[in-house]
Amino acid sequence: MKFVDEYRDPKTARKLVDAIAKLSSKPWNIMEVCGGQTHSIIKHGIDQLLPEQIRLIHGPGCPVCVTPLKYIDKALAIAAQHNVIFCSFGDMLRVPGSRQDLLGLKAQGADIRIVYSPLDALKLARRHPGREVVFFGVGFETTAPTTALAAYQARQLKLTNFSQLICHVRVPPAMEALLSSADHAVQGFLGAGHVCSIMGYHEYLPLAEQYKIPIVITGFEPVDILQGLYLCIKQLEENRHVVENQYQRIVTQAGNQPAQQLLRQVFDVVEQDWRGLGSIAASGLALKEEYSPWNAEQRYAVDAIDTVEPDACRSGEVLQGLLKPVNCPEFGTSCTPEHPLGATMVSSEGACAAYYRYRNHD
Amino acid sequence: MTEPKLNCPLPLNYEQIVMAHGGGGRMMQQLLDKIIRPAFDNDILAQQHDSAIINIPANRLAFTTDSYVIKPLFFNGGDIGKLAVCGTVNDLAMSGAKPLYISCSLIIEEGFAIKDLQRIVQSMRASADEAGVKIVTGDSKVVEHGKGDGLYINTAGVGVIETESSILPNNIRTGDAIIVNSDLGRHGIAIMLQREGMDFASAIDSDCASLAAPVQALFDANIDVHCLRDLTRGGLSSCLIELAAVCGRQFEIREQGLPVRQDVRSACELLGFDPLYIANEGCFVLFVPQSQAGAAIATLQKHSNSQQAVQIGTVSEEHADGRVILQTAMGISRILELLSGEQLPRIC
Amino acid sequence: MCLAVPGQIIRISDDEPLLRTGLIDFSGVSREISLAYLPEAKADDYVIVHAGLAIALIDEEEAQASLQAFQELDDIEAAP
């Protein structure tokens, strides 16, 4: 696959690993922000290639992991309603709510379907005018433009049987929340490349400046990640702290303007709860007032939902980089992908599941 | 061998299956006589007895059964009928048996198009002929509309074991070569891309095929086959993990050189799948002494569905619980684990 | 987060900007993808696709330049 295979070349990866080893004079803790990067790191074994003193901290950039339990419960409540076709990305189907997950609800007869895009859910609504189609829109700034477009098109088409349960989160406020907490261990960031393809990276300039931390916008293939690490460590060694762009083939500083414009048109920036991290100001996106008819939360009264968090799960510490999955007492014993205590074990890119699936045999 | 009667006209008053087609009366007889018996036609079926009476020329028999439920019923590279015959034939072949006879039980949903049923039973006949087996007995039932996905098929099969040795996971030895006959993941991806709502277009066809001939060729070439297993649900990884556990050994396979077609790889990238865990229907893994690996591969490559036969790894040592290690392209080894369920398309 | 895959635009449907789609080829698998956010995209361009939408054009020159830089790592290593 062009633009993929070149960035998986083992020889180039090896060269970068050697360059990183030469460059690193002391231990450095670097957080890859995005769950897609975590997945790639563990799958290809990049963490094992690195010199021991380079420690990777897996960041909160996995929507399955950070979507608050109450939204899973809302999704379950809506999906259980008569006449609803509930559409979701495959990622969310195994995430446990307080009492069950969407796959379990489907087994009881709910019409729950996996779609590739919110636009496919919209198509489904047009094809089934007698049914109510609801799309579960989770994810970061990469995914928000897809649900924004679906909302916009639904409004243009005056579709009355389509709505979305929106739980979008924004990356920069979460990074800032991490940086402003007293006990964080992060010394450098690999920024989330695809989020930045939409948003650009001007939002990160003040963060790097204020918290004196290097931020390298990075892609997802092994060579991208290693080059991102190289650039980040180089800054750390040279005591610099600026925003750099490793992912120049995709990301520009300004980002995708038409997408940003539609985001502003469809969503308000709001305070948002993150699973494991708590409430973060200005970290979420909610449908604007004029999109209320297409807002599933308003269409179905799902506010008074009783949500019960399991107490044994320490995913909050994992998401903040304070606890390695393997050091959690529940890991692999009472918490497995078959019986997850928390979302970081459910999501295929959750740090716990990635460790469970790809853990080294030593 | 009897030619399938492909030009049988639609003889019934209905174009769809109705409950009466399962009711034991004239309509059921018509369905059997006009659609099903002509398709499967052979001397044993023609006995029209409650059981097929067959002569088995051996003292060791292999006997297996499997049920087939699939959406969509027709897919690139096959249909549920071909799948139902090849699946059971392959289960026999993997035991080292020469497949001889299979049964066919149809569970048909009311409203199912008779022309589709006809297509499917004719496809079963064609697959049976190709695999050298006869469909000698069967059954059909009709369930109410909404109580089935159009059609379910169960097949059982018997075959004879003509070799002295047994083909069992416990025969796997340290030092054995691990070989696959064909490229990985095509069936699962072909089906996934054709599911409702996916809307992808590709030339990916299911690898669904009978494996009786290439397996027989291995025996004819006197290859010392230690174990065979077809890769079905769960793909290569799940199959190897199961076998490693049974024989108590460690398998090491190399990521580079695993046969996966470019378009299958692309589809996996799009959906967030790992090709090592995707279903196949015409792929098997073979364990032979390393000294015979070259001969085994050369023998397999003479068959149309096994031209890509290649060694993917080695049985490296004993290991009490059994484990499978993947050497990644990056030069790292990691353990392969069973997935907790089916892979779901993801975007995150 | 954010599985996004590169593909090449085969053809573009003529439509108003926010409904515009293109047939995108992903090395042997193709699909209609929304081009609402890439008004400047044209046939043969490579784009990055996420959840049914093209989100960015791939800058082929930048891609070439980065690969070139990797090649030069060798030269740095080889230098005395």
From TrEMBL, chain A:
The keyword Iron applies. GO terms for molecular function: 4 iron, 4 sulfur cluster binding; carbon monoxide binding; iron ion binding. InterPro entries: Hyd_form_HypD (IPR002780), HypD_1 (IPR042243), HypD_2_sf (IPR042244). It holds the Pfam family HypD. Keywords: Iron, Metal-binding. One of its GO terms (biological process) is protein maturation. PANTHER family: HYDROGENASE MATURATION FACTOR HYPD (PTHR30149:SF0), HYDROGENASE PROTEIN ASSEMBLY PROTEIN HYPD (PTHR30149). Belongs to the HypD family. This is Hydrogenase maturation factor.
From TrEMBL, chain B:
Residues 49-161 form the PurM-like N-terminal domain. InterPro entries: HypE, PurM-like_C_dom, PurM-like_C_sf, PurM-like_N, PurM-like_N_sf. It comes from the Bacteria. GO terms for biological process: protein maturation. Residues 174-320 form the PurM-like C-terminal domain. Belongs to the HypE family. This is Hydrogenase expression/formation protein HypE.
TrEMBL record, chain C:
InterPro entries: Hydgase_assmbl_chp_CS (IPR019812), Hydrogenase_HupF/HypC (IPR001109). One of its GO terms (biological process) is protein maturation. SUPFAM superfamilies: HupF/HypC-like. Pfam families: HupF_HypC (PF01455). PROSITE patterns: HUPF_HYPC (PS01097). One of its GO terms (molecular function) is carbon dioxide binding. NCBIfam families: hypC_hupF. Belongs to the HupF/HypC family. This is HypC/HybG/HupF family hydrogenase formation chaperone. The lineage of its organism: Bacteria, Pseudomonadati, Pseudomonadota, Gammaproteobacteria, Methylococcales.
